[in-house]
What we know:
The chain is mostly beta strands and about 210 residues long. The chain has one helix spanning about 1-20, and strands at about 25-30, 35-40, 60-65, 65-70, 75-80, 100-105, 115-120, 125-130, 150-155, 155-160, 165-170, 190, 205.
Amino acid sequence: MRRIHLIALGMLLLSARQAVLAQELSVCDQAHFQGRCERFAFGVRNLKAYGFNDRIVSVEILRGRWLLCEHADFRGDCIVLRNSVPDLAEFDLDAAVSSLRPLSRGERGGEPAAGIELFEHAGYRGRQAIFTGEIANLGRHGWNDVASSVRVLGGAWLLCRHSRFRECVEVEADLPNLGALGLNDEISSLRPLGVADGGMLHRKWLGGEAD
């Protein structure tokens, strides 16, 4: 009976993990998914850095639920989409979206309850991306060896130098310069810290001065 319970629990955890990892959408600057398009598998609090601020006209939901907002930082009028929309004029948001992010189960909008935000440059500047689940290879999302600073939005996170979570540092607080940990432009994978990670060998940084 215990084995059955463990199997059921494992399947439940796998299902939840896949649900987090499955979020992805494509946005286009013309109706009916035409024109310039770009895929996102992470949240963006200001689309200006990606050249899509106030330019999205159609949205193809590939997986998951997504929040699209009129203003940066997930403010203003927002909509939650589960299905593709060939023309955002239907919601009076055509060429008027400035931020977007995936929603986890139970979320309705606003700032994410948990996650980690990567920034292209030190001091939280440049392009940014919000991740809420594990990413085994940031190269698939255009973020391999790119981040120079991070903000922790909730929980503890492993930031890893190599793909598939190798050579990692545990981070629980914002870090304006990843160079302090020898990880400037050197993060290739990341994931939230779980109970099973208790015995892993990795460095730990809680804020303040780096070791």
